[in-house]
Structure formats: structure tokens, C-alpha cells
What we know:
The structure holds two protein chains of two kinds. By secondary structure, chain A is of the alpha/beta class. In chain A, 31% of the residues lie in helices and 24% in strands.
Amino acid sequence: MVGAFGVGKTSLVRQFVHQQFDERYQSTLGVKIDTRVVDTGHGSIKFVLWDMEGADPRETDERPLARIRSYLRGAHGLILVVDGTRPTTIASALDLYDGFCKEYQPVPAILLANKVDLTQEWRLDESVLPESLDTFLTSALNGQNIETAFSTLGEALTDP
Amino acid sequence: MSSEKTSEERREEDLEQFRQLLVGEDLSLLNQLEQRVSDFESRVNDVSEVLPTAFQRLAGDPVLEAEIERPMLRTIHASIKRDTHAFAEYLFPVMGPAIRRAVADALKSLVQRINVAMENSFSAKGIRWRLEAARTGVPFTEIILRHTMRYAVLETFLIARDTGLVLSHVHRDENLVLDEDAVAAMLTAIQSFIQDSLGVSADEALRSAELGDRTLWVINGPNALMACVISGTPPQSVRDELTALMEAIHDRYGARLTEANDGISEVMGLRALVHQSLREEVDDRPESRKRSKAPYYWAAGIALLLMFLGWKTWQEHQQRELESQITNLFRGQPGYLVSSSHREEDKLVIEGLRDPDSMSPDTMLAEQGFTGQAVQFRFKPFWSLEPTLVLQRMRTTVGLADETGLELNNGTLHMQGIVSQSQAEALGKLTGSHPLIDSLDLSATRVTPEEALQMTREELVAPVSVELTAFDGYIALSGNSDISWYLEASAVPRIIGGWTINFEPLLADLQSAVRADASELDGTALFFTRQDRLTDESETGIESLATKLQLLSESAGPLGIDMTITLVGEADGIGNLEQNTRVSHNRVRVVHDIFTGAGIDPEYLDAEYPSWNPGDKNPEKRRVTVRVTEPGSK
């Protein structure tokens, strides 16, 4: 799970793995690992989710980016998370994705535009989203589209 | 026959000729080879000839083993699926011994655990471990193993270096199973984090981490890393062994460790290799060093405790015995009726009835030597009809002296000693009214000394000159009295008020008086003229003397004095013997007559004439001397 600060990566993981949502924000330092087994059309798949700390290639502090770069090595899939109320986070996520693809071989990836429940504050222009990525409008608060997103990724990972 | 051959046939002929030119002699060989290759049977024979040798040469080749392993496994799986029973039959001869051995090993391990647990159960260390088990919730045997086991590799993760995915995971205890993927991923992330944060190169990897009593050893390999969760303190040689194991894994499975999703984690050979990392070493110090002294301390403590308990029990028994003796003392005592005895706090409480005239409880205890005992008495008063107490009460009530004897026998109260008349009177009133006393026997009693003296004086009409003294059952009379009174009073033995009258002292006094009188009269001389005529002086005094002698003789006899009045006649010596003799005799006769005339019994009178020496002339000897003597006395 990669993306800028505060886009909801940890909340999405908590909702996906534990079906819980905590309104308190506590930034992730380093990486947190969680796992969940999901059934796909090709059998069960166990997601080992690496919830990375927030990183923005455009930030001057390169240390978070350097850390997650090493974490990304060996990833079988990517989940890019953006905040629908902060359009700038889209560029951060895509930069991270580009950087990954340059350094390592491409892997199946999806993009989650989170916080869709905040309708009043929603600023996302879906036209700027890349068509090469499956995009899902999600809400970590109510779980909207989270299962679908992960199932899609699971299908892609297990597709022979 | 057609003379024309087809073009095809001609081409074939040409080709055949061309072949002959090219290969010539080898053509037949080629034909043989072709036949051999196309002949199935021939090929089978060839392969069967070389196959054993080929296998022999390739034995141990990891590539061959790996390549054979997968189809073999598939074949086995298919076979099992097809006919489970047959496979079970094939395995049956193997399963039995294998199961037995596994059970034996498990039992051996269990017995070892039990032994360790038993050895440590009662030691201070064991108790400490039990508390630790209770505090931490970890089973006691597990605690024991933690402390006795030098080390044990509990879990091993074989993790692909690049992906962080678990290639194999083995563990010792089912309870310790964690989410292997999460753990493996986290380890990988930690490795990366440390390398990045500390700025170390990728070649320098995390080797170990410690948390509580767990140690994590990471054995790094080129394609995978092995993370071992260890309990205890393993020696460095274990790391060397694990490193060697890792090398063996890489040697065998090499590049496959980096290939994702090829089922490497399902390879049993890999799992078996990784399983070799689960080693342990139990504390196997020599018994002489290992044996704890705790059992001896416990034995000593238990012995002391038993001794203390025994001593307390003996003490308690002794106390109970003592209390029983005390209680029984009162049970058997006249005037006491014990209804109950029990302990209250630290005191023995005895309850019942007590006759006030009985011996006091404290006195009883003191007499029996039970001083210092904590005893409380709760007695209510009652009157006992115990004879001893009846008599005691009587003594107290009537005021009898302690020396007065009381005995109750068949309803008769026998008394001995001093009993005053008033007391006798009081006792007499009891007769018939007391449930135990029908009659009174005072025959062995006597009145009080005062009463006895009074009674004696009155009964004997003793003169004042007679003194009465009471002592030891006797009233002794002494002093002076008329002989006649004495003779009358002492004529018969007398017992007055139980006192025996003793006249002997009076007799002695009277005798002394008579003897005194006799002594006074003894030697009285009566003088005569030249013949046998008393001088005027003597004639005047002889009447008085005769009277006295007469009284004396009358007193002496009754008083038991054997008295003799001897008249000693003498002459002056003038003249001859015959004349002097005659004169002395005459003189004695004169006095004798006067005395007998006065009433003196002639039996008391005796004469005596001293010898006369011629020439011994003494006018003073014209006398008769009166000698009053007792025969036998000097």
C-alpha cells in the first residue's frame, strides 16, 4: 500500500483485514504487515499487506521514500492510494508507481481513491486517473468498494 | 514387364546409388541403427541396460533428485487417490513400527518432563517456578523446560530474501504458531529498515535480535534467510550448524528459492531439511552437580515440623492427662460432685456442687502438687451426707476440738476425747433427728478440764488445802488434807466426767508430812533422875510427845508408812552393869507405859538398850531417847 501521507492506507488495511475503522489518525512509521486470505476464481490467495508509511517523491525529505523503496523490492502487487479530497495525492501515487516500475519489474496494481464518503469535500477529477490502472472509489469508513478492489487485485495476481 | 520406370523410381535408384557412393560400407550400419531406433523393443532394452548405471552415476545429483521428485510425488498422489486401501496396505508394515517409535519417543519425552517436574516440584526453585507459572499463565512443565533447557529452537522460518515470502515454516509447539507470512514479511521489512536507517550495506544483514527470553537468529543466505526463534542461550556452535544447514539448503534448492509460486514450499525435502534446525539441548550436567540440596532441606524442614507437631501433640496429651487427673481428684473427693469439665481459653473449668465443709479446691490442688495450674472452679453449694463431711460439719457446728475423735458407725456416733457437757448436750439433741445418727456414744469422752476439776472438787468435797490438777485424762490431787478425808476419798477408784482421779500425789504429800513430823520427833530425849523418874521438864513434855506420836502412828499406817517408835533406854554408868541395865529397862518401861496409855499401839513400840562400857559415866545418859524410824530406811 503506497501513497502520500494521510490518504487512508492504514485505515483501508484495517477495514479490509479487521473490518474496523478508527477516526484517530496516527501516521505509520516504516511499515506494518497484515495478512488476509481472499477467495478468487483461481483459488485462495493470502494477501500479505505491507502498509507503508506515507511518502511523496516530490517532498524534499527523501528519507521516507528511501525506506519504502527497499520495502517495495519483491512486491507482487501494488495498491496505490490517493485521497479524493486532496487531488495532489494522485501525482504522489503515480510518481511512486513510476519509480517502482523503473526500479523493479512491473506488477499488477490498482488505484484506490479513498474517502469517497466525504462527499462535501470530494475534489477528485476522475479524468486525471490513468486508464491503465483499475481505479476504485473507496471508503475506509464504510468499506465501500474495498472488497471489490482487493478481489480484483487478487484475480490479477492469481491469473495464470 | 514395363521397361519404363517411373521418374520416381528412377530417382530412388539414383539416390540409392548416391548413398552407396557417400556412405558405402556404413550404409548397413546406418540401416541397423535406424532399425534399432525405430524398434520399440530394441529401444527399451537399450535404455534398461544403461538406466541403472546412469542412476548410479547421478546418485546425489541435486538436479536429478529435484527432477525426479516432482513426477514421483505426482505419481504417488495419483496412486493414493486411485486406490487408498492398497497404499494403506503398503504402508501398514512401516506405519506400525513408526507409530510405536513415535509414541515411545513422545512417552520418553513425557517421562523426562515428569521426572524434571518431580525433581523440581518440592524444591525452592520448583516453588519459584510454580509462582512464575501462575503469574505468567505458562504451563508449569513449560516453565521447567525453560529453566532446565539450555536452549531450544522453537520455530524456523525460511524466507525468500527478495519477496519476504515464507518458503518453509517449521515449529516445535502447536501453540506457538504465528501468522508465518506476517512474521516473515515483518522480518524482511525490519532487515530493510535497519539497513536503510543505519546506513549499512545490503551485505550486512540482521543477525540476531532479543526480546525477553526469546532470541531471534537470522542465518542469511544469498537467496533466502532462515529466521530461528530460540529459547535459552545456544552456544556459538549452533549458529555454525545452522549456517551449515542453510548452505545445504542453498546447495540443494539453490535458485528455486528465488522463484515464486513454483511450489517450493511444498517440497517435503525442503521441509525436512528446515526441520533439522529444530534442535535443543537440555541441561545435562552431572547428577552430582545438578542434584539440588533442596530435598535435604525439605526433609529437614519436614522432620523439624514433624518433631514440633509431635512435641505439641505430646504436650497437649500431657495437658489433657493432667486435667483428667485434676478432674478425677475432685470426682473422688467427698463433698464434691463434678458435673462437667472443659477448657475455656487456657483454663480448665470444673463445674459441679461442693459442700462448704469440704476441703477447699486450692488446698486440694496444693496438696496433690498441682500448683500453678490454671483451673477455674464453678461450684454451687450443697450439703453432702458423706460421713466424713457430716462429722466435719458437726465438729464445726458443735465446736469440737480437733483432738476430739468422731466416728460414725451404723448410726451410732462414737466420740473420743474432750467433749464439754454443753457439747454433749448439743450432740445429744442430734440423735434421732439427723438422718445418719441414731445414737450417741460418749463413753470414750471426758469433760473439759475445767469441768472435771469443778466436778471433782464438788464430788469429793475436797478441802481447800487439796489442790486439783487436770492433765492428760487425770485429775491429780495434791497438797494436804485430813488423813481420814484422804482415806475416804481414795477408798475406791474414781472417774469423774471421764477423768481418772489420781490420789497418789496427795498420798505422797501426806507421807512427806508424816515423815517430816516423824523426823521432827525423832531423837527426842526424855530425861530421868538417877532412878526411873522423869524430870519435871520431861514429864511436862511427854504428854505432848505421846500425843504427837500417837497421831503419827495413826497416820503412818493408813498412809503406808511402816513406822517404828524405838525407845532407847540409857543409864549414867555409875554403878555396875546390872544396876545400869535395870535402870535403863525401868526407864523404857515408864515411857512405854505412858505412850501406850496415850493410845499408841504397842505394835509400833520397840526398845533398845545400847551397850554399856564400864567406866563410861555420863549423867546425861539418864534418858530414854525416842527414835522414830521406818524399817529398812537408813
